[in-house]
Amino acid sequence: DGGKRPDYLAGLNPEQTEAVETLEGPVLVLAGAGTGKTRVLTTRIAHILNTGRAFPSQILAVTFTNKAAREMKERIALLVGGAVEGMPWLGTFHSIGVKLLRRHGELVGLRSDFTILDTDDVVRLIKQIIQAEGLDDKRWPAKQFAGMIDTWKNKGLGPADIPEGDARAFANGRGRYLYFAYQARLTTLNACDFGDLLMHPIAIFRKNPDLLKEYHGRFRYILVDEYQDTNTAQYMWLRLLAQRPKGELQNVCCVGDDDQSIYGWRGAEVDNILRFEKDFPGAKVIKLERNYRSTEHILGAAAHLIAHNEGRLGKTLFTDRSDPDDVKVQVHASWDSEEEARAIGEEIEQLQRGKHLLNDMAILVRASFQMREFEDRFVTLGLNYRVIGGPRFYERLEIRDAMAYFRLVAQASDDLAFERIVNTPKRGLGDTTVRALHDYARARDIPMLAAAADIIETDELKPKARKALFDVIQSFRRWQELLENTPHTELAEQILEESGYTDMWKNDKSAEAPGRLENLKELIRSMESFESMRGFLEHVSLVMDAETNENLDAVSIMTLHSAKGLEFDTVFLPGWEEGLFPHQRSLDESGRAGLEEERRLAYVGITRAKHRCHIWFVSNRRIHGLWQSTLPSRFLDELPETHVEVAEMEQSYGGYGRGGYGQSRFDKAEPFANSYSTPGWKRAQANKTDATRDNWGTRSGHAVERIGYGESGPKGRTIEGE
Ligand code: ATP
Ligand code: MG
């Protein structure tokens, strides 16, 4: 066409360009970390829009987190040089699922104002069902069954589809029946769980070919990031939308990296990569081999580590980003996690003095319990930090209570919300009243709030309860009327005041009460950016990402799992110890596959770093409340010496009286010898007998030193168990 090539194409390498410009037919980009897969997707969308091949509303683009979706939207806007008019179908599988269900839910028996239940609600509901069946919920825990349902849904299996063995495995063969009962109950409640956000659209599309055809017409381009972590249900969903009748073009583009598949435990199927080529014959497979993110040392370390995995598709990676000033990956050791947090804090402050932004630094932990230590330390130091994806704000007790009020105002049939708050704060509506209401509602198949309105006209309840219930109903009627015309933040505040909920915490003398009141205030604040109560409620049920103040210069703290796709100048990877990383559970439960997934997680961690990567291990860690002497992670052994350096002994190390501990077979002096030929941790490990190592793996506990501890922590420890 002879026109000038748009700027956004200029910086791409030939393979990236091919991936962006191959707009017809299926494309699979299979490439290692930092090779520009996400950038290719973003540029591809910009290119589609810029060349007028589709409107924003005709592009279906799936990202792994809501945050990634927001960022992608912003980048696209930058690339096409102006505001993109919406991109309504850019989001996570879940958020797109919600949108589809709001439109077509009636095809599976849901009204458009259905509620999305969180895990807690689901467990409560299942417990009720188990009890209603006269089963012992101690013997058959609701939580366990919730997990089974989740697993089935990840595989795209409804109650009728689950294997016979699975169905028999719970409650003496009643698994299938309970699963059916659960789904029926959800429909009655006009609610669905997370798995349904995929399962229902799949069912809808399967049963309504005309509707599916309509969506085929709508979605001219389909794109998926982090494809290696899709589960079977997601893949089924995707295939329904992307596979077109013969003769029509299948403009689907998936990008992924088998080495970064880290959600196997949640049902992700890395085999979806292989299925893609089968289900989309003629797919163009593009490999990107140049890494634009990391230095040679970082990439070298990561590549050497991941080479220890067997089940790999195999890829090449190289980088041009080498500079004589580049530092090797640093391995540090500390006495315990407090020491580790202190040392990392110091490292961060030093970087800060060197004019590095906190925004460019991240601490990536294996398990979220590791975060607290850093949070405490940073609060002491006055270092800004943000926790991403951690214990979520919306999961806190007071927030859940408040949300239950809002949910019930927005949807009067939300029985779980009703049950949660009918006696919170205490109003004399105890278990007896709730049970009476429950029975009344079940018998007539009406929501509990409606049952409450009926029951106060009868003499089923004692006068006191009747009066209290009357007040509750009146309040909800009032709030429901206000829902449409009152600003939702104002209404929210009013609800918390009038219900007595705020007062409940004001009168509470416990240490947490002030924090809870703060959180409630924060909740109201967080509603401001939404147009309506419903919009807000929907958002909350979807948030995966924790609240962050984007404007603050702050260190990010998050789990390795939530770091996927991100990059930072400096990355700290604490807790590289056997039993923590690789995680004990992965070793116990899934053998080699589990270990390989852990190794991929380590690979994801290292490859988040652009310039500096610091790995830490400690000699003592409290796991499940017990101080344990730990062994350095086997992953440390798997790092190449050419790209790794053992940092010098921390100054503060040994500050605790090491006295008696010096006798340990695991001589703490060794790891800090600044030796490059035989990294200290290897020698330290050689000092341990093989038996110790094996025992650790099976957690027999015999050879593992347990260190006695008081509440105060590691001081005054003694060694037991030898
Ligand atoms: P991950 O596997 O970790 O998700 P990725 O393959 O998606 O990584 P991107 O995040 O898209 O990689 O890119 C990594 C970094 O390299 C980004 O900072 C990106 O802007 C940069 N980058 C990608 N391609 C190019 C290019 N052609 N020129 C310059 N920088 C590039
Ligand atoms: Mg990416």
Automatic annotation (TrEMBL):
Keywords: ATP-binding, DNA-binding, Helicase, Hydrolase, Isomerase, Nucleotide-binding. InterPro entries: DExx_box_DNA_helicase_dom_sf, DNA_helicase_UvrD-like_C, DNA_helicase_UvrD/REP, P-loop_NTPase, UvrD-like_ATP-bd. Pfam families: UvrD-helicase (PF00580), UvrD_C (PF13361). It catalyses: ATP + H2O = ADP + phosphate + H(+); Couples ATP hydrolysis with the unwinding of duplex DNA by translocating in the 3'-5' direction. SUPFAM superfamilies: P-loop containing nucleoside triphosphate hydrolases. The keyword Cell membrane does not apply. One of its GO terms (molecular function) is helicase activity. It is an enzyme of class 5 (isomerase). ATP binds at A31, G32, A33, G34, T35, G36, K37, T38. The keyword rRNA processing does not apply. Residues 296-565 form the UvrD-like helicase C-terminal domain. Its EC number is 5.6.2.4. Residues 10-295 form the UvrD-like helicase ATP-binding domain. Residues 677-698 are annotated as: Disordered. PANTHER family: ATP-DEPENDENT DNA HELICASE SRS2, UVRD / RECB / PCRA DNA HELICASE FAMILY MEMBER. Belongs to the helicase family. UvrD subfamily. This is DNA 3'-5' helicase. It comes from Rhizobium ruizarguesonis.
